[in-house]
Specification:
It is built from no helices and 15 strands. The chain is mainly β and 174 residues long. The relative contact order is 0.18.
């Protein structure tokens, strides 16, 4: 459980201010097991196991781009490409973005989005962009391209944007 294909994470230091920019080219990443499709208990192999994830608990910006390659996830809540500004406090004002330029993302678990950008603070810009490639989600409650900006801080004023400039999104629940 919670085993990422590629993970970059800051620690819990809320004053950390470096930016993270990750680009994946030509990689094949698989998390979980096809035997777990349809399971949603937190003991199943592959749960919360994203293909590419950048998570930031500080104030620096986080971005992840899939330039080419293939990602397959089978677990419950296992996203293909995920960037996450974690922790709802006033210091976390960073922008987060997830971009897919080319390649293929397949997710099969419930709540397993193809491209997902999210912030727990409700501050900063949350951006999910699909420029090309193919996203296939097969689990129920799984979205092809998703962005979420939770208002975890009083007076939060962040924006959430989804942009689709190209590519294909196919979704089907079971």
């Amino acid at each position: 459980n919670n085993q990422q294909g590629i993970l970059v994470s800051t620690g819990g230091n809320t004053t950390f201010s470096n930016d993270f920019n990750i680009i994946s080219r030509g990689n094949t990443i698989t998390t979980g097991s096809a035997a777990t499709i349809g399971q949603n208990t937190n003991v199943a192999v592959g749960n919360s196991s994203d293909g590419l994830r950048v998570q930031n608990r500080g104030t620096g910006n986080s971005s992840i781009t899939m330039a080419s390659g293939a990602i397959t996830t089978y677990g419950f809540n296992a996203h293909g490409i995920d960037t996450w500004q974690r922790g709802a406090n006033a210091n976390n004002t960073a922008n987060v973005s997830a971009t897919m330029d080319s390649g293929t993302v397949d997710t099969s678990g419930r709540y397993s989005h193809g491209v997902y950008a999210r912030s727990d603070t409700g501050q900063g810009l949350v951006l999910a962009t699909l420029n090309g490639g193919t996203i296939n989600t097969y689990g129920s409650d799984s979205v092809g391209v998703a962005a979420r900006n939770s208002a975890g801080v009083t007076g939060a004023s962040g924006n959430t944007v989804i942009t689709m400039n190209g590519g294909t999104v196919n979704t089907s629940g079971y």
